[in-house]
């Protein structure tokens, strides 16, 4: 599939298949099209060319959201004026979930924010905000989670917590697509990796037989070839 | 199922915006402050009642509502930007036009509340006689407000996604609002100024404008969201 905005091609000839219960890491320089790909997978945008299948079903030309998908973007998608609990209850209601207060409290406890659930989001530190955003992503019990640099802003405890959350997701047979710039994160979370540059997939591999040093050398090769503007 | 999701989405976004406004009072205070400042300035500038005030009254009224409405428009999507919450709303189940409709409905409620609270003050301070057909005046005020918020919400949404969104809102919104403002001023004048014709021609014009600008954003919404 491909994606263009006006005359500018953002994604070109992307062809990927993911089996249920697997996790894929996407790496690449800034402006490679990684976030655009995630936005298309989430249902926020529709591809301009080709087709997208999610959960085995073809998605229409018109972009469609799906409550089986959890999306963690660069921003938290939370309202600074509301408390963490109010924010999550709002999303639970928006998604038509019963007992929004119970669901909100449960996921906030899971991410270690039970003690500050009634504080306005604007008073949260960067790490707490990221934890609240993770709670929002988990709220609907998604079968596929899309993560755009999810470790950003997290302290050591936060990183351990996210590792645990992602292990639970994998253990439950759910799927993960994660954008990351770090080889250690990719090796820890993903079963497969795809490297993108200038809107195209340039390298991809199953990670079961790839050593971290080899993945790092592939990234370095991309850099040397002039494709990797930034890592 | 999809319709149920769309109605639910519309309702909870509307309620969320209302709760946020009741908590911050940003939009309400800014709009009322502008309208009251306008009416006080005109009341002091024009002095005692005269035919001149009567002739200018509909224009003064709608000019105040136009600019107060523009102040309100800046806040519609403003609080969705810092943490990209608009994306969260779009990704919720249900048709994404529910986001536009909820934002538009919220703006209409605030615009009508500002009109309801300030119109009696305009009549009192500018010493204009209260119209006998006040129900018809309420209809014109509501239709004018609807036309304004339909276009305003559309351009606020476009502007919110662009770096110079405020400039776009100001420069594109005013020309597009001119037809609805002229029609609303004419309908109001026909009601308030003696010797003019029936206001119904202009009221039907307002209805037509409202219908067109209700349909247009719904057709363009998906395209505009991705641009």
Helix run count of chain A: 7
Helix-and-strand structural type of chain B: mainly alpha
Compute the gyration radius of chain A: what is it?
18 Å
Mean pLDDT of chain B: 88
Poorly predicted runs of chain A are: none
CATH architecture of chain A: 3-Layer(aba) Sandwich
What portion of residues of chain B belong to β-strands?
Answer: under 5%
Written as H for each helix and E for each strand, in order along the chain, the element string of chain B is HHHHHHHH
Strand order, sheet with most strands of chain A = 6-7-8-3-9-10
From the 3D structure, determine the CATH topology of chain A: Rossmann fold
The end-to-end distance of chain A, rounded to whole angstroms, is: 25 Å
Strand content of chain A: 15-25%
Strand and helix order of chain A:
EEEHEEEHHHEHEHEEH
Mean pLDDT reading of chain A: 89
Q: What share of the residues of chain A lie within helices?
A: 25-40%
How far apart are the termini of chain B? 28 Å
Describe, in plain words, how this protein is organized in 3D.
The complex is a heterodimer of chains A (231) and B (227). Chain A has a single domain, classed as 3-Layer(aba) Sandwich (Rossmann fold). Chain A is 35% helix and 19% strand. The longest helix of chain A is centred in the C-terminal third of the chain and has 16 residues, at 156-171. The relative contact order of chain A is 0.19. In chain A, helix 3 (100-110) crosses helix 4. Chain A contains seven helices and ten strands. With 227 residues, chain B is an all-alpha fold. Chain B contains eight helices and no strands. In chain B, helix 2 (26-46) runs antiparallel to helix 3 and helix 3 packs antiparallel against helix 5. Chain B starts with a helix and ends with a helix.
Key attributes of the depicted protein:
heterodimer, A: 231 residues, alpha/beta, Rossmann fold, six-stranded mixed beta sheet, two-stranded antiparallel sheet, B: 227 residues, mainly alpha, 8 helices, 0% strand
């Amino acid at each position: 599939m491909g994606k263009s905005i006006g005359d500018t091609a953002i994604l070109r000839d992307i062809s990927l298949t993911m089996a249920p219960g697997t996790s894929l890491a996407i790496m690449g320089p800034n402006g490679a099209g990684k976030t655009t790909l995630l936005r298309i997978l989430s249902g926020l945008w529709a591809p301009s060319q080709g087709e997208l299948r999610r959960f085995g079903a073809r998605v229409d030309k018109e972009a469609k959201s799906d409550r089986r998908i959890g999306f963690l973007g660069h921003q938290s998608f939370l309202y600074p004026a509301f408390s963490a609990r109010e924010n999550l209850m709002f999303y639970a209601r928006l998604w038509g979930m019963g007992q929004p207060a119970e669901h909100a409290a449960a996921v906030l406890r899971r991410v270690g924010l039970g003690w500050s659930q009634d504080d306005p989001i604007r008073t949260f530190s960067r790490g707490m905000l990221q934890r609240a955003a993770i709670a929002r992503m988990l709220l609907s019990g998604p079968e596929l989670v899309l993560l755009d640099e999810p470790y950003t802003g997290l302290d050591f405890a936060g990183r351990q917590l996210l590792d645990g959350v992602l292990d639970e997701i994998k253990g439950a047979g759910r799927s993960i697509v994660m954008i990351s710039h770090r080889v250690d994160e990719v090796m820890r979370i993903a079963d497969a990796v795809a490297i993108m540059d200038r809107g195209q997939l340039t390298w991809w591999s199953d990670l079961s037989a790839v050593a971290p040093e080899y993945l790092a050398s592939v990234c370095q090769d991309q850099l040397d070839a002039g494709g990797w503007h930034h890592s | 199922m999809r319709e149920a999701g769309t109605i639910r989405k519309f309702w909870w976004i509307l309620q969320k915006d209302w709760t946020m406004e009741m908590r911050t009072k940003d939009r309400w205070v800014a709009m009322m402050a502008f309208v009251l400042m306008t009416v006080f300035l005109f009341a002091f500038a024009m002095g005692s009642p005269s035919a001149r005030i009567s002739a200018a009254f509909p224009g003064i009224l709608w000019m105040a509502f136009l600019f107060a409405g523009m102040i309100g428009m800046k806040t519609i999507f403003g609080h969705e930007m810092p943490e990209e919450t608009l994306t969260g709303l779009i990704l919720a189940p249900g048709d994404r036009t529910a986001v536009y409709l909820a934002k538009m409905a919220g703006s209409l409620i605030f615009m009508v509340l500002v009109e309801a609270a300030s119109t009696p003050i305009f009549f009192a301070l500018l010493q204009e006689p209260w119209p006998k057909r006040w129900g018809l005046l309420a209809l014109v005020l509501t239709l004018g407000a609807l036309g304004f918020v339909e276009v305003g919400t559309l351009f606020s949404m476009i502007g919110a996604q662009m770096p110079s969104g405020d400039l776009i809102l100001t420069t594109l919104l005013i020309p597009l609002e001119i037809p609805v403002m002229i029609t609303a001023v004419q309908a109001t004048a026909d009601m308030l100024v003696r010797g003019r014709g029936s206001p119904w021609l202009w009221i039907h014009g307002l209805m037509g404008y409202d219908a067109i600008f209700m349909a247009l954003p719904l057709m363009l919404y998906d395209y505009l969201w991705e641009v």
